Amino acid sequence: MLKLTKTYFFAQTVFLLVLFAPCVAADEGSHAAEFLSHGVGARALGMGSAFVAIADDATATYWNPAGLPQVKKHSFSAMYSDTFSSGEGSWLSRGLVNYNFVNYVYQIEDIGSVGVSWIRLGVDDIPRTTFLDTNNNGILGDFQDKNGNGIKEDGELYIDRPEVAEYFSNTDTAILISYARQLHRIAAVGGNLKLLNQAIFENTGRGFGVDIGVIVEPYQGLRLGALLLDATGTQVTWDTSDEPTFTRGRRLRFGAAYHFSVPRLGRGSLGADVETGQADLGEGTASAGGMLLRAGAEYWFFNTLALRGGWNGKGLSVGAGLRVKVNTVAFFVDYAFNTHTLGGSQRISVSGEF
What we know:
Largest sheet: 14 strands, antiparallel, barrel
Mean pLDDT: 83
Strand content: over 45%
Order of helices and strands: HHHEEEEEEEEEEEEEEEEE
Number of helices: 3
Low-confidence stretches: 1-30, 280-288
Structural class: mainly beta
Oligomer: single chain
Number of strands: 17
Helix content: under 10%
């Protein structure tokens, strides 16, 4: 009886935290570590990122760790993405930004579900340009100062020749350490500890944050989910002289999903999410009053081929998936395409479970 009371007290505490913590969220730094908002897994992204209540594969570590008890004993996922097409390169390498994800989930009997995830977003091979001291006067960047005011103006050409001194990368990385437990037949809770590292040229920023999620299935096929992102206010401190700290404000994402099946043909899922704490996203978005709306659908034909589509609040998304079983291991290959004003983004995922 004591164990049951503690369990329900914990569940009630989590629900209250998820529901009311956004009321005290600060506006400061809502765009800090924004790479954490890009989403992972071609399956979820092909469904418009409406995945907080579905979250039934290895990517649940990102979308809602409370979904991890639904994952097989061993599960993994890896994603490659080219983001914001440059129009150059092959059809899978035209992106200006490299965005990748890999993770592993393991079920520990009588303890719960644990997972480790790695996310990296990077712009590589950025040239740093300097000048070659052509006239050997020890001053870089000399120009033809025709009027002698010391300010470079139109028509005043450089004397020193510019050259690329080196190449550097702008990278954002995160490690998510996840844990979840099934509290009741219809309810599960989970959380993430996020360790962040950001680097640009010679400076780095480090920080950490916490996510808390809940999933409830009151009726078979109907799932309700909620995720409090950055529950403690994720802070990133940079190593510059004044050591500025940027805080990623709290956001609440909640949604519903419905699973259905068609005898002898296949099965499908419908999902819809709402995310609070959104800034003004401009025209063409589904944001109203600081809320972002997402919706998506998935249908599996004969448990082998999947088709997906959705709206991620900023544009349309489409995707497809293929399931191949080898002995006791099921492998999945998924593809997603998302539209964006800066150019389309392609995602490819490979995952497995056994």
